Amino acid sequence: xxxxxxxxxxxxxxxxxxxxxxxxxxxxxxxxxxxxxxxxxxxxxxxxxxxxxxxxxxxxxxxxxxxxxxxxxxxxxxxxxxxxxxxxxxxxxxxxxxxxxxxxxxxxxxxxxxxxxxxxxxxxxxxxxxxxxxxxxxxxxxxxxxxxxxxxxxxxxxxxxxxxxxxxxxxxxxxxxxxxxxxxxxxxxxxxxxxxxxxxxxxxxxxxxxxxxxxxxxxxxxxxxxxxxxxxxxxxxxxxxxxxxxxxxxxxxxxxxxxx
Length: 260
Hints:
Structural class: mainly alpha
Number of helices: 11
Largest sheet: none
């Protein structure tokens, strides 16, 4: 057990170190959430806040926060493809450690990176006037970790059969960006046409956003924004998705490594 834990922590430490050395990535990771919350959230609140009956700035903030956590962790796993091209993963996978420990270390490292980005998003949300209580901030900590783990498992599943980093860069945006709208990051999704309703409920990000938003409004006074499910329902769905994604994604990735 100690041997496996050391392997997990070493892989996680490597990913955090890479992030801290990548200054352009750090800057970009903070710019886009600030634009979404400040410009989009502020403009929607000014124009639609009274008609909607709830605070649109807080609505967009919770959606963007969940989206940043999910996307950052999922996209960070793309470095597995880069490692494969550089034969780094070959050295990892011949080490006497569990394959699941390797994948867990990778997800843990990207989770820590995503949490660091989330701190910046929360600080900016406070600056632009998003109502946040101390209790809500405390509740965000476990929720943020859960959303990161879901994003990491999803990234493993998507990238398991992508042989090159170029292909991963082409395919990954196609499965991530549509979820921004299907998951309700910027807009309510309680009432959708049937085709979009099905796609929305199939998108993993939907449950991360709804969980974050449900916890926020559950601890906030005043009118609440529309949510899809009770937080416990979202937790159960996320736990199921995480287990399926991680199990299948790890099996596919390990199988492909053995076939190289």
